[in-house]
Amino acid sequence: MTTLSAQAQLVTTNFPRTPRPSEATTPQKHVFVGMWVTEDGHIRHELLSNGRYDEARGFRESAYQGRYRVTGDIIQYWDDTGFYADGQFRDDVLYHGGYIFYREGTD
After folding, report:
1. In whole angstroms, what is the distance from residue 44 CA to residue 63 CA?
2. C-alpha 89: how far from its chain's center?
3. How far is CA 75 from CA 12, 70, 71, in A?
4. Confidence at residue 100, expressed as pLDDT on a 0 to 100 scale
5. Per-residue DSSP letters for the chain?
6. CB count, 10 Å around CB of 80?
7. What is the pLDDT of residues 44-96, one digit of tens each?
8. Cα 78 to chain center, whole Å?
9. What is the pTM of this model?
10. For the range 41-46, what are the long-range contacts, defined as Cβ-Cβ under 8 Å and sequence gap of 24 or more?
11. Phi, psi of 83 (to 5 degrees)
12. How large is the C-alpha radius of gyration of the chain?
């Protein structure tokens, strides 16, 4: 993995007004399904094909879970606790929440 400086985060404005949208989880068909990790391995962010994600932090498995949607290179998250956020994929790197994630198993 290479060290990159964090670039400006893309912010989208089309989130639902409620933090717990009534829209059901939908299967996702895109190339980004799989495990994404920070360079130090502390945060492990798994994008599941069923439209859900599971994030581990350090020794805390499933620290955050929720649903997500990918549109083009933009990802939107709705955490089960009501939090929502977004990120962007650029050159097979995920920029989300001020963190840089790399696809697991690649250099």
Report:
1. 10
2. 9
3. 10, 4, 6
4. 97
5. ----PPPPPP------SSSS--PPP----STT-EEEEETTSSEEEEE-TTSEEEEEETTEEEEEEEEEEEETTEEEEEETTS-EEEEEEETTEEEETTEEEEETT--
6. 11
7. 999 999 999 999 999 999 999 999 999 999 999 998 888 889 999 999 999 99
8. 10
9. 0.78
10. 43/99, 43/101, 44/104, 45/94, 45/96, 45/101
11. -75, 145
12. 13
Q: Which residue has the tokens 């859900």?
A: 52
The Cα–Cα gap between 9 and 21 comes to 23
27: which 2 tokens? 């299967």
